[in-house]
Amino acid sequence: MKDLHSLLPPSMAATNLNSASIFLLTFALLFMVMGHEASNSGQYPVVVSTWPFLEAVRAAWRVVDNGFSAVDAVVDGCSACEELRCDGTVGPGGSPDENGETTIDALVMDGVTMEVGAVAAMRYIKDGIKAARLVMQYTEHTLLVGEQAAAFAISMGLPGPTNLSSSESMDKWTKWKENHCQPNFWKDVVPVDRCGPYHAKDFLGSSHGTCSKTTLMENIKSRSSHVGRHNHDTISMAVFDKMGNIAVGTSTNGATFKIPGRVGDGPIAGSSAYADDEVGACGATGDGDIMMRFLPCYQVVESMRLGMEPNLAAKDAISRIARKFPDFVGAVFAINKKGVHAGACHGWTFQYSVRSPEMDDVKVYTVVP
């Protein structure tokens, strides 16, 4: 290392320093040098997202590259996807439930403070991720739901109430009704007519049921037959800011033709997303009803905490689900504090997007089952 006096300003270099002062100045200068080297390592910022949601990743990158926080970037990135209605499964205007209504699930998590804000089955508000952030910022709660979540969001300044349906979602719903409301998410039931109301199969012998056992069996199908990217999807995003702080966020309008009131894994911390500033982050997409039973993103982060590399942590989390539900469809991405990332999937080919300092634009990675 250079002589201490050569590093000091001229006014200080000419000063007679005692040994204690020299020691303290040396320590301070070493700390400054080390801190400067760490902050310019080229490792951060980083943005990762499920699927080729390029504009969402670019929006998040613009925010974080300009020095804003990881939480700011996650909110802007997911908001971009909501506005673009990514794949018809994020934001308003998609994925109608059995009543033809679109509702929103969203989450934001600060990996530094471990604070979480989320909304679920939220009606009338199109800005899901912004509503989730308001829950985190202005309440001591983690999750608000339904019309009360909408009322809270409006009271905090978000626009609404708004009709979240679109001509596309209503056309999709009308065609589904014409197809005897198939496929759907009911099991072990019989409908009074072609679209319900439904009764438990124990009612088969009563006057409430008008369908045969054959009809009941025809209504039982593999979950994978109606779970896919374009009807059952989530944007899940992780961002490291320039300071290395991390946040995650999700947004979805849920499963197409879901039973009204259904909440998937999107607003569930540890399932759709999870972040810990000491370790890294994870994002998930797929059959949330199955995946939320395993908290795969919490599993991924905890595996990385124990020293597992991201690719192995991701594969382990997915394999735990597949052992119990071999027909499930889903995927995760994992990224550790070093910026090493990987993905794993089951039942479909998965893609995730990354933007980091050494890239000129977003890069899409493909993962096969």
Written overview of the protein:
This protein is of the alpha+beta class and 369 residues long. The protein has a single domain, classed as (Glycosyl)asparaginase (Glutamine Phosphoribosylpyrophosphate, subunit 1, domain 1), CATH 3.60.20. The protein has 12 helices and 14 strands. The strands form 3 sheets. The chain has an 8-stranded mixed sheet. A 4-stranded antiparallel sheet has the order 9-10-11-12, with helices on one face. It has a two-stranded antiparallel ribbon with strand order 5-6. A hairpin with a 5-residue loop joins strand 2 and strand 3. Helix 11 packs antiparallel against helix 12. The longest helix has 21 residues. The chain is globular and about 60 Å long. The chain starts with a helix and ends with a strand. 48% of the residues are buried. It comes from Prunus dulcis. One of its GO terms (cellular component) is cytoplasm. It is an enzyme of class 3 (hydrolase). Belongs to the Ntn-hydrolase family. Heterotetramer of two alpha and two beta chains arranged as a dimer of alpha/beta heterodimers.
